[in-house]
Write a structure and sequence with these properties.
This protein has 385 residues and is mainly alpha-helical. The protein is 51% helix and 2% strand. It contains 15 helices and 2 strands. Helix 5 runs antiparallel to helix 6 and helix 13 runs antiparallel to helix 14. The two termini are 37 Å apart. About 9% of the residues have low confidence.
């Protein structure tokens, strides 16, 4: 642990200047960026114009406080070279900005969704006018070409999202190996999670609103009639994450059922396979899925549907479907949590039911049981990029 040095001592030792101490943080950043030729000291990448997007880095072991002028360099905050103390290595996963990677991804994903909504609204209005169901005056000539401009904005944001997914996080590389996981949906999920704050699987389940009864809870009292959150009360979970996880679970079902049908009836046309599949009971579907897709998330959905069909006769079809999707999404989030924290070198304690305090239950399903690569495989793939 180094001893702090006062500004007066730094001035006396000629290790800083009065002019430097008078500068604001942004002014210091811009001054040092100019001295470095506008490039990151560690990796040589061009630094952005906005000083809010980069920061003054401290070389590990530097003995002087931030007021010191000498031996400083501008670089992207979170650059692994800083953490490792070596400017020649550790360039994988560099963070281009002074905000966490997941926060950058959140901004891009949410902006892309807003642009998508604009495009869809405009398209719906045009369709309504074409069918004579809306007033053409509501689409003035001034918006001519707006479709193309919105499309270009959406394409730019999609490309930026893809770049963030490629360049930064091993977890993104790991997730897309799983059948049913696409780059857009997983980007939406990752953008809503700060994995360092989720210290347990259940914390992530609560964040997504999948913990038992958590979707009905609120900071205030529940509505006496419905038993749900009162209108206007803030949700205790992330509604966007919950929606994205449900969409991901539905993708697992679609892709998994397609694999099962092709494996069970390889010589038939798609329509014939679907007809045969729909004729099966939920128990029969589970048995067929277990034969052909034991390593896919669809097996967990089918197992839950077979269970609730036999044991929850009072439930509606929609409730059984939502329940099975919740089970599937929770398992996926558990695996995402375990792999992500493992790749980041964070603790990954076993599920509570598997611990002695939780009863020491068996039946643990590992991420590799559902198609996730091992941590070693992900790191090897990242090293080859």
């Amino acid at each position: 642990m180094t001893t702090k040095v006062s500004n007066a001592e730094l001035l006396a030792a000629d290790k800083t200047t009065a002019a430097w101490l008078k500068l604001g943080k942004s002014e210091r950043k811009l001054l040092l960026r100019g001295e470095q030729g506008g490039l990151c000291h560690f990796c040589g990448d061009p630094l952005p114009e906005d000083p809010a997007l980069f920061d003054i880095a401290r070389i590990p072991g530097h003995p002087y406080p931030k007021a010191d002028y000498r031996d400083k360099s501008i670089c992207y905050v979170g650059h692994p070279a800083i953490a490792s103390g070596c400017s020649a290595n550790g360039h994988q996963g560099k963070d281009h900005g002074n905000i966490p990677w997941f926060s950058q991804l959140t901004a891009v994903v949410q902006a892309r969704e807003e642009v998508q909504r604009m495009r869809i609204r405009l398209g719906n209005r045009r369709d309504a006018v074409a069918r004579g169901m809306d007033d053409p005056a509501l689409i003035p000539g001034s918006v001519t070409g707006l479709d193309a401009r919105i499309g270009a904005m959406e394409d730019d944001l999609t490309a930026e999202m893809a770049a963030l997914m490629r360049n930064a996080q091993p977890i993104a590389v790991a997730a897309v190996h799983v059948l049913g996981v696409g780059p857009t949906t997983i980007a939406r999920i990752l953008s809503e999670i700060d994995i360092r704050r989720a210290r347990s699987r259940s914390a992530l389940h609560k964040l997504a609103g999948f913990a038992p009864g958590f979707d009905k809870m609120a900071k205030g009292d529940l509505d006496e009639e419905s038993g749900r959150r009162k209108r206007g009360e803030k949700r205790p979970y992330n509604a966007r994450l919950r929606t994205h996880c449900r969409i991901q679970a539905e993708s697992f079902i679609k892709s998994g059922v397609s694999v099962v049908k092709k494996s069970e009836w390889p010589g038939l046309e798609p329509e014939e396979r679907t007809e045969l599949w729909n004729s099966l009971s939920w128990v029969e579907r589970y048995r067929v899925a277990r034969r052909h897709a034991s390593g896919l998330y669809v097996i967990d959905y089918q197992e839950r549907r077979a269970y609730t069909f036999d044991n929850r006769p009072d439930w509606t079809e929609d409730r059984r479907n939502s329940d099975a999707l919740r089970i599937t999404a929770k398992l996926f989030l558990s695996h995402l949590w375990e792999v992500w924290r493992g790749l980041d070198g964070l603790e990954t304690p076993p599920p509570y039911p598997m611990t002695p305090m939780g009863g020491g239950h068996s039946g643990y399903i590992s991420p590799q049981d559902r198609g996730w690569p091992t941590l070693a495989e992900v790191r090897e793939e990242m090293a080859g990029k």
